[in-house]
Amino acid sequence: MCLVPYPPSYASDNARKLFHDLVIQRQVSNHTLRRYIHNLTPQQWVQALEATSGCLEAGYKVRPETYDALMSKLLDAQQNRGALLLYQRMVQDRVVPDTDTYNRLLQLCHDTRSHDGAETLFQDMQRRGMKPNLETLETMINIYSTLSPSNWRDAVVLFDKAKSDRRYHGGENIRMTCGMYCAIMRVYLEMEPFDWRVVYNAYYEMRHTKPRIPFDWETYELVAIAMKRGNCGVVRRFVTFFDAWVQITPIYSMKFIVGFCVFFAGMSVIRAALVLISKATSTVSRQGDMSPLKPVTDKLHDRVGVMPWDRGQGPIK
Question: What is the pLDDT along the chain (317 residues), one digit of tens a residue?
């Protein structure tokens, strides 16, 4: 019995025979098999398969936790096809993977751009009674963002579901993360019709959420792309950049001090340039009103009245 096919040159009957004999002698358990799989390197994924196959051939019932350990080893070894075949075998044996295994399979679908496969996995996960966590929803939203145009309606449904979920696990309230907001902002960037204000509103909501969400520079990069694409004003773009820089830079650090010095130096140079331009403009306007011939022309107009050339007759010859 072979769980996943592999090249014959990789075959190693030692692990298969060893665990087959241990099962017959009743000297092995799922805990022993899992510990053996965990101690293997990703390059030894064939031995993990052989050990599990040996247990199954001897009639031993492999628990879901052991299948999950084997799945993790295949994914670490980048055996994507083998991981999917193992999932199909688990489904046939009515073994339900845990949430972490589903998350890694969904991430695999995201990396390979298999949108239909991800949707099937997500529906199968919920049908089997496994409740998605924030990592699951974030991965699905990222998958929706890779569509063109993005599936923003389903993404918003998952995003609202994540915001309204207030489950407790280990005594800590599960709340939104910066990755969730980055995922929904990617969806908004690809939606049609495009509106930069939708992306900015998501950024603004994340910045004002209580308790405060740890900031990530990727969030600013996404909103900066949206504002640039939407021809947003320079002032708003600068204020957004300054706000993001203040959030990401520790106050008691040399970068923060140097940044503020550069900011104030730049503002001082801009202010000095504006003052010089204002003075130069006022000087030029005053010089334009003080022509040297203006007093003589005024006296001639007072004595003679309207000059002939003022009536369009040309100068007197």
Answer: 555 554 444 445 588 888 888 888 888 888 888 898 988 888 888 888 888 888 888 888 888 888 889 988 988 888 888 888 888 888 888 888 888 889 999 998 888 888 888 899 999 998 888 888 888 999 999 999 888 777 888 889 989 888 876 553 433 445 678 888 999 999 999 888 889 999 999 999 888 888 788 888 888 899 999 999 988 888 888 888 888 887 877 767 777 677 777 777 877 888 888 888 887 777 766 655 555 545 555 554 555 555 554 554 444 44
Whether 62 is in a domain gets the answer no
Helical H segments across 165-293, by residue range: 178-190, 196-207, 217-229, 234-248, 254-289
In a domain, 298, yes or no: no
Note the pTM of the prediction, 2 decimals: 0.70
The residue segments making up the domain with residue 261 are 250-288
38-47 long-range contacts, CB within 8 A, separation 24+:
38/69, 40/73, 42/73, 42/76, 42/77, 42/78, 43/77, 45/73, 45/74, 45/76, 45/77, 45/79, 45/82, 46/6, 46/10, 46/11, 46/12, 47/12, 47/15
- CB-CB contact of 102 with 130 (8 Å): yes
Task: Tell me, rounded to whole angstroms, the distance of Cα 194 from its chain centroid.
Answer: 18
For the chain, how many structural domains are there in total? Answer: 1
Look at residue 32 and tell me if it is in a domain.
no
